[in-house]
Design brief:
2 domains, PH-domain like, three-stranded antiparallel beta sheet, 5 helices, about 20% strand, elongated, alpha+beta
């Protein structure tokens, strides 16, 4: 089954943001930036207390070491989203809209847009969720496919697409049971 639609900039940004937020890199960078913000904040606060303020140095250090990480942790999600959006907009913004395709065949879900093609094995599919704007297919830690609901002609078209995914997945697992067992026991993140 082939699903074809015209994608927008947001259709390319949202999967990148969602996938990165679930990565180990995201978590590591978040805490690393919070640590350095605390160290720099503490140094700046101590320097300011020494030169301009009449605060005891330990109070200034505590304020700086606390305020820096709190600011980073409160703004990190938004900052990351904006960085990813800016990068994608710079790379593809002038070539929009573009045709995006999802093809379900031979136990796989293939994504194609621009000159990029990504193929997911349906045996790696660990979750299907839907929000008010998109359907998300999670393939363990291998990636996600995010399809806007506007890509479907109607509710029946969406239902048929999801049924095709399920059918292809079941057929693939029946043909390759050893792969299905490995996929079913692989850890999720």
């Amino acid at each position: 089954m082939l699903l074809r639609y015209q994608s927008t900039l947001e259709d390319h940004i949202e999967p990148a943001v969602r996938f990165f937020r679930r990565s180990k890199t995201y978590s590591k960078q978040r805490w690393t930036e919070a640590f350095w913000a605390g160290a720099i904040g503490g140094f700046v606060a101590v320097s300011m207390s020494y030169m301009f303020l009449d605060w005891p140095m330990l109070v200034a250090a505590a304020v700086g070491f606390t305020l820096g990480p709190v600011i980073v942790l409160l703004t990190y999600d938004d900052t990351v989203s904006k960085r990813i959006a800016k990068h994608i907009k710079t790379q593809i913004g002038s070539r929009l809209p573009t045709t995006t395709e999802y093809l379900i065949e031979n136990g796989r879900l293939r994504y194609k847009s621009y000159d990029v093609e990504i193929t997911f094995s349906l045996q790696d599919l660990t979750d299907i969720s839907e929000d008010s704007e998109r359907i998300e297919f999670t393939f363990d830690d291998k990636g996600i496919a995010l399809i806007p609901l506007r890509a479907f002609d109607n509710a029946d078209h969406k239902k048929d697409f999801l049924a095709c995914i399920q059918k292809e997945r079941e057929q693939s697992e029946a043909q390759h049971p050893s792969l299905a067992a490995v996929s079913a026991t692989s850890p999720t993140t």
